[in-house]
User: Fold this.
Amino acid sequence: MKWLRLRTASAAVPSEALTRPQLGWLIAASAAAYAPHIGQQPVWLLSACLLLLGLRALLWQQRRPTAPRWLLVALSVAALGAVLIAYRQIFGRAPGVALVALFLALKLNETHSRRDAHVLVQGALFLTFATFLTVQGMATTLLAALSAWISLAALCAATHGTRGVRDNLLRSGRLLLMAIPAMLVLFVLFPRISAPLWGLPLDAHAGRSGLSDSMAPGSIAQLSLSDEIAFRAKFDDAQPAQQDLYWRGPVLSQLEGNRWAISARTRHSFAALPYTPRNAQARYEITLEPHGKNWLFALDYPQSLPEGSTLSADYQLLARKAVIDRRRYAVESAPVPGLGRDEPAAILDETRALPRLGNPRARRFARELAARADTPRALVASVLSNFREQEFTYTLEPPLLGDDAIDEFLFDTRRGFCEHYAAAFVYLMRAAGVPARIVTGYQGGERNPVDGYIVVRQSDAHAWAEVWYADSGWTRIDPTAAIQPSRIERGLAQALPRGEPLPFMLRADFDMLRALRFRWDALANAYNQWVIGYDAVRQRELMARMGMRDADWQKLAFWLVGLGALLLAVYTLWALRQHAPRDPWLIAWRRVTRKLARRGLAQEAWEGPQAYCERVAAARGDLAAAMKQIAALYCAGRYGPAPDNTALTELRRLARHFKP
Assistant:
């Protein structure tokens, strides 16, 4: 039983047992570690973690012992089972983060000693920075920095014993500030690579909002309720007019029931432009938010292909890989007259095709209009005139439609959003034998007056049509402009009837908040451009500005090692200075002992001032009187009840003139 007695005695050492304030700090650090994950992790996971956290906080507040070990073991098994049920595996980014989050809360419920505290803080820091596997925005970075600050404060509290809140926060703040220079050197000079250091699993882009590869009635209306940013654009020269900002996305040529989809025939793409480039009328750079698909957005029509992109047969710009990270690319666009005049017959037949059955009234109406129209252009004008003259309503809240959705929309409800008008228009064109297709993307955008970027949100999602003319090829036709021209000229907020639901950022009655949001967006955009978007290209640009042209990895490594050594030297000198005495009485005494040490009479580490004075007097009788006076002043000033400034001045004078 000797090992048991030794273990019990070790566990009872006061310096190892955590005090109540120290446990409070650990609870706060654990809570802060979950903050960056709010909105990123499932509700069930965060709820379970907060329940376990609340259990520990309740027991701490009531000064009760931690939960019994059998309960913690049962909860651990339940946590593992919950992760397996939710993710069907325990390996990968999402299940891995979930396990860390759950086991951190369980570890908190068994924390007793300083060693447990160190493990808990390490887990809290790991969980904090695991959020960057999902999102890397500026708000997340600020939350993570705050969480790390609190975690380091908890570590200081557990290491240095009971101290005040202010003292622990100052200590941890100093640690973070000391790390900033090293962080900046590593960030700026470390060679950038094109791929992350970890492999993201297939769920890395799950839950992204944005356009789909198909469209049904109401799909874009639902997307337009979101004010999430789709991308930002910055023009080199003058910005085109608002009504010309059609950002081309997926082209939908195939109709199945009420759903339009991308045609399998046009999924192949060109590695080079299938048309002769022209002088660009618009030059701009796009910063695209991750959406999990492989399409890029550009104005009609790209005059060059960005690196790593192709152009589809229906002139949609495509990335070779899915966009799962924020991507920046430059584009030049210009109109291409006559584009598609030599379109293959197979594509023209496909863009005339309709299901064999369905929407009989729309088919009959299209034949009537075609009989009265001499040309396809006259037919287009007739359909648009019908939209303008009849009582059609542009709304974000269209009624649900049945199997014959086109018939119900054209002749019954006459209420719809852009996808309703585009789908009905293309259907009528095809029913009359004219090739037509739907183009989805974004229309317009809002200029941020702070940084000059055009901010395109999901609420700017739009659908329009393209009609094929034998003499001019594919031509854009926007039926929404016939119903509500203000949607194209001034944006969604000006086009909807009063009282319709709008994204928060589009409401006209929140001008002050929108101005603040503009500033926040500009700051977040700068962060995205120079921190998240700091790739090899940005690094070369920055190095060139600093006079390091053609900086390869060898030069970067040289400067990295050199600046790292310099920082290490600065930190070492700073640390040595921290150990230097700051007590003025001790400084004066050390001045005397250094002089004696040079004469072979150094003070031993175990030797007190009085004993040292007696030894010096015995060895050097001529110094006995001076040493006795110096030792008396030093002991009275440093160990006495009320130090006297006059005595300190006298001690400094004696130390200065002391000559052994």
